[in-house]
Amino acid sequence: MKMNTTELDKKAIEKLLPHREPMLLIDKLINIIHLKSATAIMYVKKNGFYVQGHFPDQPVMPGVLIVEAFGQAAAALTAHGIDPKEYANKLVYLMGVDKARFRNPVIPDCELHLEIEAIRSHGRVWKYKGTAKVDGKRMADAEWSATIVDRKK
Predict the structure, then answer these.
(1) Distance between CA 25 and CA 50 in Å, rounded?
(2) Residue 77 lies in a domain
(3) Is residue 71 part of a domain?
(4) Choosing from 19, 34, 54, 122, which is the catalytic residue?
(5) Domain count, the chain
(6) Is the pTM of this model over 0.85?
(7) How confident is the model at residue 129 (pLDDT cuts 50, 70, 90)?
(8) Each residue of 19-28: pLDDT tens digit?
(9) Backbone torsions φ then ψ of 49, nearest 5 degrees
(10) How confident is the model at residue 4 (pLDDT cuts 50, 70, 90)?
């Protein structure tokens, strides 16, 4: 994988993240600016694992999964941007979530765009912010922090 790639498909994301179906939420990472920003695309499907019970007659994507998708997008951006030798045997863990706001319900059968930005890093700790949109309409936003840790062998 080239460091200057500006788009990652699901297979490339799987090489960077340990998540797998059904918990791998993001389908693409586009508009990548090296270690700075990107947009993740998530296809919110009618048959998503959370739809049957949240809520049976009026399905809504849970806000906590929007936050998880933000975290996955940030982890993929960071993992893609750092030296592959440095990232070998590492994981990115979510540390905290701040200022999460859910402004409109995300209804299945849509394309959720997660615009994320790395706002600072200090050693292994990174801070991010993001906005989730459907058809250009803001659905949610948050700030969060994550850390890069050694993968247990």
Answers:
(1) 12
(2) yes
(3) yes
(4) 54
(5) 1
(6) yes
(7) very high
(8) 999 999 999 9
(9) -60, -25
(10) low
